[in-house]
Amino acid sequence: MHIQITSERFEAIVDAYGAEPQRWPQDERAAALLFMQQHPEVARRVLAEARTLDSWLSSADEVEPSVALQWEVLARMMPAGVAARPAPVVARPRRRRWLAGGIGLAAACAAGIIFGVNIGLMTLSEARAEAVLASASLAEVDNW
Amino acid sequence: MTTGFDPDEAQIAAVARGDAAATQSLVARKMPRVLSLARRLLNDAAEAEDVAQEALLRLWKQAPLWVPGRARVDTWLHKVAVNLCYDRLRRRRDTVDHTEIELADPSANPTRRLDQQQMSQTVESALSTLPERQRVAIVLCYYQELSNIEAAALMEISVEALESLLSRGRRQLKAKLSEARGDLIGGSAASGRPVLKVIQGNKI
Question: Which of B26, B128, B154, B204 is the most exposed place for a label (fewest CB within 10 A)?
């Protein structure tokens, strides 16, 4: 069905959702785009006003989680540690024996460091977990 | 209620089977959006991290009980995160009320140049001063890019009510940011007084 929208409705859509058509209600987007073609003067004025705020809103920085935070969550999900799980079997190229010995020693050292870091992260995350769980008062949510 | 195809369902099933790689991938994919949502609703980095962690843990615990087709994973996760934020905002409102918040301090920038970082901070601060439901509506629709139907369902309101919150929120934001921006560029910086003060705790 072909929907037509009024000037007031076009203004209300832009007022609420901003100037970018992909943010507009899906069921009214085509009609709003058609309105823009038929009433370019009105559309230009309304969109210009909304674009100012849109550009300010988009200037807010993206929030990037730290790697440590991701590891904290994983440590709480898998207390035994990701490292404790058997490593996936991957076909490796053959190495010369003297090189393999050195690599083995280095791997053992790295494993020791990873184990130590993992224990540290788990201790930190456990303390933080207690604080979060103590403060969260939400009832369990099923998936509706 | 059925939700149609959900691209996350296969991954949730893998997480439920104890697949470590799927769990790692789930955390890596979902953490940025949940953290971003919490950060913008709470305007507090540490609290936002706690909420993001808790929301993802709940999703992980829910994985074995997940009923395919009943809800989209993303919508469910947003709902849990928004509820956790509401909890914290409620507690904050009970303890801190009528706190004066400065949107920006012009003396921190002697050149009075409105650079990207400063504008970003100003936007985040202005957002944090909006009434709670207006802020949630703007964050869900603008930053989280949920559709109007998804955002309204998540907030348990009608689409018309959501539109009203969005319009009022955008108008208030524009007024606050115009003032802050005008003051930063204009002459009030020279006086050394705070640019704009607002009272937190205002009602919708």
Answer: B204
Nearest CA in chain B to A15: B167
Cα-based distances in Å from B201 to A78, B16, B99, B133: 40, 41, 8, 12
CA B67 to each of CA A29, A78, A144: distance values in angstroms, whole numbers, following the listed order:
33, 23, 9
Query: Is A69 in contact with B117 (Cβ distance < 8 A)?
Result: no
Contacts of B145 in chain A (CB under 8 A): 23
Could you give the C-alpha distances from B149 to B66, B135, B140, in angstroms and in order? 23, 17, 11
Distance from CA of B1 to the nearest CA of A (A): 9
Q: Touching check for A73 and chain B: CB below 8 Å?
A: yes
From the list B35, B70, B170, the residue facing A15 with the nearest CB is B170
The residues spanned by each domain of chain A are 1-60, 63-144
What pLDDT band is residue B7 in, cutting at 50, 70 and 90?
confident
Residue B188 in tokens: 């009030």
**pLDDT tens digits along A70-107:** 999 999 888 665 544 443 333 333 333 333 444 444 44
